[in-house]
């Protein structure tokens, strides 16, 4: 478990167990995520990283354990995930922008239609966020007119415009050409500097080292290590982590 006394626990995972067709994909996962903390989840493909994020956002059911957000269980039958997802934002590999809507229409859909906020207030925030990621001049463009990196930055703005307390990023650069990766990672780095609580799944090792407060290394659906990034990359505790890092020449 992560010890960070100066910050409150925002999200608590307790003995989480997830199965697909009787096969365990996440076993006995326990982790505390503190307000303002950046957790980067690393591990080989198929180890359960993305599944973990989807469980945290209610996109996958779990077969055991508990997830608590702000001290309240998210596993009870009465949980309204539409409400919870306004507080736990998620950005995926594939941007999921509506192709028939402009950038601004995509960004405003959640705040205005779901949160019922005043359009003028949501519009002001959307313009500020688009300006922050360097895309205010593309607010009237359609997704087909944007590069992959631009689309992913819009997807991040769309999630941020819901004012979430925590952001989940699932391999957000995986579908991008190499030259577009940096522009997306820079946005996430700036969010970290501003104190956004984040859980990030990535294969970008240099980025993980730069942004993480703690590295969580998963293999075979289990947490093998939880440690500071400088310790993990210099002196991994487990043989499996050493093998994993050797692939990236760490």
In brief, what are we looking at here?
With 250 residues, the protein is an alpha/beta fold. The protein has nine helices and ten strands.
Structure description:
This protein is an alpha/beta fold and 250 residues long. It is 36% helix and 25% strand. It contains 9 helices and 10 strands. The strands form 2 sheets. The protein has a 6-stranded mixed sheet with strand order 6-7-8-3-9-10, with helices on both faces. The protein has a 4-stranded antiparallel sheet with strand order 2-1-4-5, with helices on one face. Strand 9 and strand 10 (222-227) form a beta hairpin. Helix 3 (103-114) crosses helix 4. The protein is globular. Residues 1-6 have low confidence and may be disordered.
Structural class: alpha/beta
Proportion in β-strands: 25-35%
- List the secondary-structure elements in sequence, H or E: EEEHEEHEHHHEHEHEEHH
Tell me how many strands there are: 10
Shape: globular
């Amino acid at each position: 478990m992560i010890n960070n006394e100066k910050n409150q626990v925002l999200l608590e995972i307790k003995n989480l167990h997830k199965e697909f067709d009787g096969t365990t994909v996440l076993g006995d996962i326990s982790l505390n995520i503190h307000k303002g903390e950046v957790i980067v989840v690393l591990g080989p493909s198929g180890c359960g990283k993305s599944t973990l994020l989807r469980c945290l956002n209610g996109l996958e059911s779990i077969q055991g354990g508990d997830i608590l957000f702000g001290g309240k269980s998210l596993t009870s039958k009465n949980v309204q995930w539409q409400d919870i997802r306004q507080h736990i934002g998620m950005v995926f590999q594939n941007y999921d922008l509506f192709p028939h809507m402009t950038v601004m229409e995509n960004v405003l859909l959640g705040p205005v239609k779901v949160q019922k906020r005043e359009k003028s207030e949501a519009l002001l925030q959307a313009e500020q966020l688009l300006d922050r990621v360097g895309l205010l001049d593309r607010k009237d463009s359609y997704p087909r007119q944007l590069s992959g990196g631009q689309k992913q930055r819009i997807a991040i703005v769309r999630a941020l415009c819901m004012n979430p307390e925590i952001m989940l990023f699932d391999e957000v650069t995986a579908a991008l050409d190499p030259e577009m990766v940096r522009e997306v990672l820079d946005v996430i780095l700036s969010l970290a500097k501003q104190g956004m609580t984040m859980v990030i799944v990535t294969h970008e090792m240099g980025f993980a080292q730069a942004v993480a407060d703690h590295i969580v290394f998963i293999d075979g659906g289990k947490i093998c290590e939880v440690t500071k990034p400088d310790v993990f990359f210099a002196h991994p505790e487990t043989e499996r982590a050493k093998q994993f890092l050797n692939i990236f020449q760490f």
